[in-house]
Write a structure and sequence with these properties.
The protein is mainly beta. Helix content is 5%, strand content 47%. A hairpin with a 5-residue loop joins β14 and β15.
Amino acid sequence: MTTRAITLLCLALVACDPNRTVPERNAYVPQAVAPLECVPNLDGKIEASEVRTAFGVPVRYLVNPAGTRRPVDLAGVTDSAGRRVWQLSTDYADDQIATLSASTLEGKWYRSSFPTGQFVAALDLAGSIEGVYLNDGATLFLLGYASAQESPAVGKTLVVYSSPIATFRFPLEAGAQWVSASEVRNATVRGLPYAGRDTYQQRVDASGTLELPDVSFTQALRVRTTLSIEPAVGVPLVRRQVGFVFECFGEVARAVSLDNETADDFTQTSELRRLGF
């Protein structure tokens, strides 16, 4: 018998050994998946619990380049089923990406000016001006705003509202409306002393399907905001804004008018931001 044959015979004998123990394997256990903190229920309204602040989570928006305008249809159309649809899905070749995120006031140079502030979010796409917010479960308040840096090249900004501005009153649903006004005293804007009065008129006037370039939202709420700025020195300014808000996502699109626009459904925007990639 050859060496190769002996080897094969030994292997065969080992394989057939009736005393050989075969280990039992455990069934595969998949990794636990944490449940989502918020799941849209599409009930036509947005509760405070459906607009939670996620600290440090980047949100990407498609935006028109600074200084340009975008055409926009804010009125929308009615489809064959009688539902309102807003088409903001045009893919513009020169769109840019703005990435924004919320944060706490920890380490902010202006923290002591907003002792009740809970979180900070950029007011402009460049992230140079930050709004300070408080959510008490019934209302989302804007307490004021400040420059992200204490001494930027354009000058420091620090505005503390004498009365918090109600940006959202919960639940958000079609038909809701409110007005908030606040005096601004002993403020600083771009390094210069500032005083004035800001008035925000807001209403939720419709719900429907919002079509964006990368995603669609079937029950978005349209929120109209008219901001009237009355400085102690200078010319008053009116700026209109139409935002689209969806459960668990917050604001997913925004159109900002040109200064002193008079039409609710303005057709030219100074800023058009849309959730996207």
